[in-house]
Amino acid sequence: MENIFSKLRNLDAYPKVNEDFYSRTLSGGIITLVSSLAILFLFFSEFRLYLHTVTETKLLVDTSRGETLRINFDVTFPAIPCTLLSIDAMDISGEQHLDIKHDIIKKRINAHGDVIESRPDGIGAPKIERPLQRHGGRLEHHETYCGSCFGAEQCKREGFFQRIKDEDGEGCNIHGSLEVNRVAGNFHFAPGKSLHHTNIFLDDLLAFQKDSYNISHRINGLSFGEYFPGVVNPLDGAQWIHETSNGMYQYFIKVVPTIYTDIRGRTVHSNQYSVTKHFKNLEFIHPNSHPGVFFFYDFSPIKVTFKEEHISFLHFITNICAVIGGIFTVAGIIDSFIYHGQRKMKKKMEIGKFR
Fold first, then answer.
1. Of 8, 32, 148, 241, which cross-links 134 as Cys (Cβ 3.0–4.6 Å)?
2. C-alpha dist (Å) from residue 207 to 55, 192, 204, 286
3. What's the predicted TM-score (pTM) here?
4. Residues sharing a CB contact under 8 Å with residue 314, sequence separation 6 or more, in sequence order
5. Residue 132 gets which letter from DSSP?
6. How far apart are CA 338 and CA 331, in angstroms?
7. Number of C-alpha atoms within 13 angstroms, CB side, residue 278?
8. Measured between alpha carbons, how far is 240 from 72 in angstroms, rounded to an integer?
9. What is the DSSP letter of 190?
10. Strand ranges of the sheet holding 217-224, from the earlier edge strand across to the other edge
């Protein structure tokens, strides 16, 4: 056993020096104090980083196919009544949704932005007691002949224009969501409604009511999918009031699929986007073009992933050891340089070579 202990003592890389041979200096004490404070400061800095989460970012190729996307929006039109506004959506696959009413809430607002009435879209149309007939008369209660479809259309148009007249001077806040295919497409807000069963657009008839429409608007919120912490959507709070407000407001949006995983493992599938704005005055474009706010979106082939995670405990211990060992090593080099420099200067002064 003595031989084993002797061999272990020979492996000691830290030989001890008797305290009687220690030489303590003022410079060494100052360096020790400064290095200890530096170690303490860096230790708490590393400990704070260990307690906080860090976000790892990766770029991947988006291979998802056949999925749908929910678009959330909140837009205010201060000069167009709710009855006049409709929402249409279409994509490059050929799928179209005209005059969308599901999951849409419209709020009538006055000139000061106060809400007058809030209701789901498609509710509140006036009831037609006596529909028009093809001969121009009205259907009495005891009559069973409905007449042509043109009479029903004419009655719908009259009711539509009557509501516009009643709400003239009001604005509209419209918010809700759309579920669309995950392919390039567009959706837009425009004055007028589409009559699906006759393929006639009511916006063709609006010229009889007004010459132009103030399509100025404010985008209170626009998101593709769920929100995740730290995301800043460039169109949130965007306000666009053009000198010539009767035109086509166009937003060209590049959507970047994003997956966010928090420290608890909860995953949020969302999207970030960039946007370019453009305005077309109706006086200088095709006469059949209609005013409105158009959002054209396309998807990036690259997907971004954000993952929150803690620094591992082993990484924390490694950093602490590096801090302590590094500072002590540097402090020892500085102390040795000062100590030996002072000794050489002292010897030269003793023999008179240094004055």
1. 148
2. 55, 11, 7, 15
3. 0.63
4. none
5. B
6. 11
7. 10
8. 19
9. E
10. 115-120, 104-109, 171-181, 68-77, 217-224, 238-240
| Domain spans, the chain | 25-58+310-354, 63-122+143-300
**273, 231 contact by CB (below 8 A):** no
Taking alpha carbons only, the member of 224, 218, 216 closest to residue 274 is 224
CA 18 vs. chain centroid, Å, equals: 67
Angle separating helix axes 313-350 and 26-51, nearest 10 degrees: 170
Residue that has been written with the tokens 């340089």 in this structure: 337
Give, as one character, the DSSP assignment of residue 206. Answer: G
**Per-residue model confidence as pLDDT tens digits over 184-213:** 999 999 887 655 444 444 444 444 344 567
The pLDDT tens digits for 290-316 are 788 999 999 999 999 988 888 888 999
pLDDT band for 281, please (50, 70, 90 cuts).
confident
Tokens read off for 306: 């954000």
Angle in degrees, CA 107, 112, 118, rounded to 5:
15
Distances (CA, A) of 122 to 59, 174, 236: 43, 13, 27
DSSP state of 6: H
